[in-house]
Amino acid sequence: MARGPKYKVPRRRRREGKTNYYKRYKMILSGKPRFVVRKTLNYIWAQVVIAKPQGDIVVAAAHSNELVKKYGWKGGTANTPAAYLTGLLAGLRALQKGVREAILDIGLHRPTRGGIVFAVAKGGIDAGLKIPVGEEMFPSEDRIRGVHIAIWSKMLREKGLVERYFSRYLSRGLNPEELPAHFDEVKKKILLDYGGG
Asked: How far apart are CA 118 and CA 86, in angstroms?
């Protein structure tokens, strides 16, 4: 452990691996709202946050579990299609509150090309928010719709292993091979709910 008269103990949230204060400082200096994306093993959150001296104020938010409760989503709640739909929902809500642009805040998540955090950002952009992210960072359209999951489940079905890997999908009444069509259906419901088409 570091010692000595010049050693400075890192702030608590940095020690816990929750906040990168250097990145946060740079984002707050921009003066723009942040499109905050956080993911866990089972869920994804997307929030539009404005920094104030008294603390962050959440203007709009969406949670991937809302897709199940409100829109009849039968797929996983932490995969790429669910990430995109969560971002779309948060973006539409932010537009309703008058937010037109934001900067992406992925926290301590690694910025991997085609990653889930960028699927959330793509959802926010498709909703109408202006978020500066390079096009090469987004997952492909097929990946966003879950075509890769449908192909994999088809391979597993041939080996007789689909029940082992997709028990949650099957218990909700969704054949994983039909995920892209289900994605389109849920996306349409969300857009209709917020006056889109």
From this structure: 12
